[in-house]
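Side project, low priority. Logging it here so it doesn't get lost.
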Amino acid sequence: EGEVAPPAGALFSCACRDVLGWGFSEGRLEIFHGAGEWLGLRLPHGAAPQVVARLQAVTRGCEAQELALPRGAGGRRGFRVDPSGVVTAVTRFSFAETAGLRPGA
């Protein structure tokens, strides 16, 4: 089967400082950037580790982790997030802290 050539030019562009993180699995990469925006890409087989290595080299982002956190007493989440989606505070001894969530994530 023939491969589809990528279009000429950039597919996506943002400043390295705007990359918050990424998530990947074989064949798929999600890049989280800006104010909680994201972009999903399909990658050729085996390309994810190389793309992730490049992201690690040029951004301050890191691999994203999905956490399913129950609410604590009074329905509180146990953490605060700023408008750009970055965690600003985590309540001591909360489910969020126990799961490993930290400010700056």
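Brief comment: The radius of gyration is 17 Å.
Revisit when time allows.
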